[in-house]
Amino acid sequence: MNAHSARSYTLLSIAAALLTIALKTGAYWLTGSVGLLSDALESGINLTAALFAFWALSYAAKPPDDDHPYGHSKAEYFSSGLESALIVIAAVGIAITAWQRLLDPQPLEQIGVGLALSLVATAINGGVAWILLRAGKRLNSIALRADSHHLLTDVWTSFGVVIGIFLVQLTGWIILDPIVALLVAANIVWAGMRLMRETGSGLLDESIPQADQQLIKQVLIEYEQEGIQFHALRTRKAGSRCFVSLHILTPGNWTVQQGHDLCEKVELAIAQLMPRTHVMTHLEPLEDPVSFQDQELDR
After folding, report:
1. What average pLDDT does this structure show over 180-208?
2. CA distances to 144, 145, 200, 202, 240 from 205, in Å
3. What is the pLDDT of residues 90-103, one digit of tens each?
């Protein structure tokens, strides 16, 4: 991944957050809708998350050094972790405000203008979320994917708020506005927990997806047909990078050069299938029983 390229997408997210905050805050001032207030608060969280994502991707782009020989790509998890925490905090704030309004309902004003501003902000968030999601998948960036999913949550939240205000206008039941806001808070908590789970999996060195593991095994099958064996395959993700290690078992009468050449071919074949992947191999003789004592590491 070109981390600098990923970082440039966060600038788009920052600009969108600033614009939507202004639009949604204006909509709240015009209507007095607590649902629209919850929307504006959510956009404030978007801004904080986008700023932190910019920092995290900048740090993740740093090359390996003596203190961090495997690079700094895990810095992206700081961004997604903070974002998930901020989402939950925002949801609590929204729920408190909605509960107060539920106990003391207030009439809504200038609904038409407020909804128009909210829908414009929603369209902006939807467009930026789609761009970030595509970029996050293409660049394999959890920070961009987290930001895009957060924005998509904001989009669905905004639709819920609009529906709530429409129902108030249709039925005259102003209590529907805080009820919708409470549902919005619950939806935001769900999104935050999903992000937190993905962040935790990355920090705990979760294996790469099964589909990618199958790609690796397809490469190894070609060599197994030639009598070569493999075991102790281990994988993990670190932000946008992947790490793969495995043991290669060859006839004991092979020269060092033959074994080295085979390792190079296997590492290159895997790296070509999976860009941004660091492959480490360990050569062992087939005839030595000691070579098979680490098979419990197989996956």
Report:
1. 78
2. 19, 18, 9, 5, 13
3. 777 777 877 777 77
